[in-house]
Design brief:
The complex is a heterodimer of chains A (about 300) and B (about 230).
Chain A: H1 14-44, H2 50-53, H3 59-95, H4 100-115, H5 118-132, H6 138-164, H7 168-176, H8 181-211, H9 223-234, H10 237-266
Chain B: H1 2-14, H2 17-47, H3 51-65, H4 69-83, H5 92-121, H6 125-133, H7 138-168, H8 181-191, H9 196-225
The chains are: A mainly alpha (about 300), B mainly alpha (about 230).
């Protein structure tokens, strides 16, 4: 952990430091005790038997199940994030357009797709494409399109929030040198907003990657489903799913670290706010309209001086 | 058109659409309570000065929020229930419902923890220093100065987490909760393919009607209660 100064606690004196050491030891004992309990219970049920773990560490398990599954997961996530960025840019600038009808339409689209569960969209598109024989692989297409619609709407909000959270002086300066509203948006606000939203975009990639696992429910052959098929065959679902979960955790952890680094790195390069997203739901809100109202962000306030360290 | 509407009405009457939504609301309700409790405990661990608790809280959050919810649900169904043969109720439906609540709880608790922590992080250090300067000790400073501001800062992220929880309650299908909306929508479409768009719109609008008011309320509250700095 960091040496950040906590808002709740003063720097501890000698007595408090003794209490902290005591609490530290007790806390460690409780945590280790819970872990030990789980391990003992699992051992009592024979879950550490080599026969249950060995199939996972064979080359055929990786060649035929884990790696093709991971490839499918990454393929769907890759298409989805590219599509979502395009969708987000179109509808995000749509929400900032000067024409009221465009603003309104973009708003309805974005709010609708943010409110509908991704799984419902996946099931709908899967059945729709299956009935109409639109694709050889309706499950893949359904996963990608559902993820584009949901995450694209979230990114549209990121674009809007990125522009909304810029200091007012930026647009005022643009208008003062004689730019029109559209020119201010294109040449001053959007470029800064896009840089500011990069960390949140990387966090959104974590959401995309996690949501590809929903494809399992509509029989898309991604990592979770591959692991599950392999686990069913070897009657070691607990072990196999643990490995699959670890793969997801490692990738997402690395992406989260990149998002945090970007957030710090970019904070000096734009007037916008470079908070990383929380990895769930709608990550940002837009600054209140009133003068001096604080911008509200759900994520860590990045390098913005709040000193939040994950 | 009238013909379409009457057939559509018959479809609505034939399937328990409302009770499917009710299952999702119940899942959300219990998981919201559970994840609020667990998430608050985790947040207290992470903001405490005790390193071992900080570490355990951080480990929990980093592991759970980087695991797909579908993986957690599938793990509960295939590993915990099938392989370890742990049951939570003799009644099949009740058993899966409880597993669904547990899966939603452990996943969203990580986000509740981060929401609360980000609320605490919105309080500037100067507030604590000012509280000390006027002679408040730890508990009064926390109760009167810091926590009230922290809760206000946490409203918006907590609202977002609640919305995500409600939508994610459909993933309970992965732990065999078969009465919730995504399963029912699939059944309805599979046997009434002609009405696929209309059926999807019923469920989509149903969720929009549930989700959008929560969003409006939390935005209103967080703007109204925001601490102007």
């Amino acid at each position: 952990m960091s040496s950040q100064q906590s808002v709740l606690f003063d720097a501890p004196g000698p007595r408090a430091r003794r209490w902290i050491v005591l609490g530290n030891v007790l806390g460690a004992l409780v945590v280790l005790g819970i872990a030990a309990l789980v391990v003992v219970q699992l051992a009592a049920k024979g879950q550490f038997a080599a026969a249950l773990w060995e199939p996972i560490f064979t080359s055929s398990a990786w060649q035929n199940y884990f790696i093709p599954g991971l490839q499918n997961t990454l393929r769907a996530a890759g298409y989805a994030i590219v599509g979502a960025v395009i969708f987000g840019l179109v509808f995000g600038s749509g929400r900032l357009a000067r024409v009221r009808a465009v603003r309104w339409l973009s708003g309805v689209v974005v709010e609708f797709f943010r409110a509908v569960p991704v799984l419902l969209m996946m099931v709908f598109f899967w059945l729709l494409f299956g009935f109409n024989r639109i694709s050889d692989d309706p499950a893949f297409l359904a996963v990608v399109i559902a993820l584009i619609l949901y995450n694209g709407s979230v990114i549209a909000e990121l674009v809007r929030a990125g522009v909304g959270n810029l200091p007012k002086g930026q647009s005022e300066a643009g208008l003062a040198v004689g730019l029109t509203g559209g020119q201010v948006l294109r040449s001053i606000q959007l470029p800064q907003a896009l840089i500011a939203m990069l960390p949140a975009l990387v966090s959104q990639l974590v959401v995309v990657l996690k949501d590809t696992a929903l494809g399992q429910i509509i029989t898309y052959n991604e990592l979770l489903r591959a692991a599950q098929i392999f686990g069913n065959g070897n009657s070691n679902n607990l072990q196999t799913l643990t490995v699959a979960a670890l793969i997801f955790i490692v990738i997402n952890w690395a992406l989260t670290a990149v998002a945090r680094w970007l957030s710090r790195y970019l904070s000096g390069r734009t007037a916008g706010q470079t908070a990383a997203g929380p990895g769930i739901g709608n990550p940002v809100a837009i600054a209140g309209k009133g003068p001096g109202a604080p911008p509200v962000t759900a994520g860590d306030p990045g390098g913005g001086g709040g000193g939040s360290v994950l | 058109m009238g013909d379409f509407l009457s057939q559509f009405g018959a479809l609505f009457a034939e399937y328990p659409v409302v009770s499917a939504f009710w299952v999702n609301i119940q899942l959300t309700f219990w998981a919201a309570i559970g994840s609020l409790i667990l998430g608050t405990i985790l947040a207290l661990m992470r903001i405490s000065p005790i390193a071992s608790l900080q570490w355990a809280g951080a480990a929990y959050v980093n592991i759970l929020r980087n695991t797909p919810l579908t993986v957690i649900m599938t793990f509960l169904f295939l590993a915990v229930w099938t392989q370890l043969q742990i049951t939570l109720s003799d009644d099949f439906a009740q058993n899966f419902f409880r597993f669904g609540v547990i899966g939603l709880t452990v996943y969203h608790a990580a986000f509740v923890c981060e929401a609360i922590r980000s609320g605490v992080n919105t309080v500037p250090l100067g507030q604590a220093e000012a509280a000390r300067a006027i002679g408040l000790s730890f508990l009064p400073a926390a109760r009167l100065i810091i926590l009230p501001q922290a809760f206000r800062g946490a409203i918006a992220p907590l609202g977002n987490t609640l919305i995500a929880l409600l939508k994610n309650s459909t993933v309970a299908v992965a732990v065999s909760v078969s009465t919730e909306t995504s399963t029912l929508m699939r059944e309805m479409i599979e046997s009434n393919a002609n009405y696929i768009y209309a059926i999807f719109m019923i469920f989509a609008i149903g969720f929009a009607v549930l989700v959008i008011p929560i969003g409006l309320l939390t935005t209103y509250l967080s703007n109204r209660l925001a601490v102007r700095r």
